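Bench notes, bay 3.
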Amino acid sequence: MLHAVIMAGGSGVRLWPESRKLRPKQLITLFGERSFLQQTSDRMRLVCDGSIHVVAGSHLRKKIEEQLPDAAFIEEPCARNTSACIALAAIMCLEKDPDAIMAVLPADHLISPQNLFAETMKYAAQWIDRHPEKLLTLGIPPRGPVETFGYIERAALLNSPDDPCVFEVKRFREKPSRQTAEEFISTGAFFWNAGIFVWKARTILDYLREYAPDIFAPVERIQQALGREDFSDTLRSEFARIPNISIDYAVLEPASKQNHVAVLGAAFEWDDVGSWRALEQFFPHDDSGNCIASSVEATGANGAMEPIFVESRDCLVRSSDTKKRVVCCATEGLGVVVADDVILVFDKNCEESLRKITKKLQELNCEELL
């Protein structure tokens, strides 16, 4: 059976102040009425005949279970990156289904249309059923030379041209410079790395044993403790011993060098909506490039007051304030996000600096804003 593993432990710091420690990006609603997490679960319910698992820290358990009461919550005792998250989920899937296929995906991405996503995931699961020794990742055909995504370089075609294209993975490439990204795009041999994977639960554990024994050893001890009275204590102590490393570094990169990894070209639209600037593309702009990054329902007579732009260009405003109006005058490239308890003003061209906000707030003991 196909089991969904939704990784929901991220912090979404670049979408502060809407994304907070106890209500991170995956739990907030930026579009419509469903959170990113709920939308991810909705998509997977179209294709899964097994369980929906959500992996996150205990501090998010209550809110996740409120949003997804039917999902199986897997608790991470501490933050240990995607290798630990996936390994823990794999042993939980195997406990329920010895032949489990895992669909692993982040909780906070935007994907459409739903039917194309469902068709892609169904084909991916079928392909893995025929090639259980492989690790399959989904590649997004790039829309341009984006510097904030990782890339996957493809090699030989592995199936019939009449089927959805599955390629051998030649190598994974980290987030490139603008010039390097343009070179990638010009070759036609690269996909964006969406961080969505499909594989047999037993296979990913086998490759962890081979390529990352320092990860596999504590995970194996956790697996051996399943059903025992000391399971919680074992999970807590052994999970903390797992190195903090991504599944890409731990397994996918070394496995790709031995032709164990394939990439399926995705037919759907995808974006990780990782920043306020990324959000702009989903909302209308005026003739000067200014964007009101709020839904129609959130502005107007019954919602937040619509901002005013005077001699301003390329600005972004998102506000939930029903009493105060944002006015931008003689500004360019400015971002303004108004929350109930704080206002963020930033240069849209320096978004990476937003990661420093949480550190600064901690230094100032402003825990209530984190």
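Next record in the batch:
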Amino acid sequence: MAIADSVIPFAASAEWYAARLRGIENLTAAHDTKSLRRTLIDGPDGPVWLSVPIAKGPGLRISDHGNWPHVHLGAINARYGRYPYFTFLFDQLRDAYADIPETLPEFNARINDIIMSWIDRDAMLSARQLLSSDPRAAASLRRTCLELKTNLNTRLSILDAIFRLGKNTTLLLL
């Protein structure tokens, strides 16, 4: 089933956010329902899927089946609880999970709003201007960005990067 362009994937990958912030459009047009309701986080034995259950029937209505919000928050806490930005981001996520809206697009938009509050778009624009105007500074910035990309799995949810880097996640997305 094809989904409208306006639906944001659930806690999408750093790769997805980097492409979106570069202005690449139609990122979700080819996604099916499954890819819009799942995200990968780091786990002790490799990546772990977090999935939002969807009720049968028309639309992308969130199912109240199981205690998935508790499972999500527990998995996030277990994996990222010792990371430097955990306390700040986790509180925001817990609030978002406290009152789940009826539909997946509403929930994903809520999570996206939290994620975007951690991405400094002004700093991103400044860095892009620097990359095109000052070759020496650009080389240093490129090394920093490459180091971040080498040390993080950008196919994981952007939440992974934010828990580790905070606002410096912006550099990962250049």
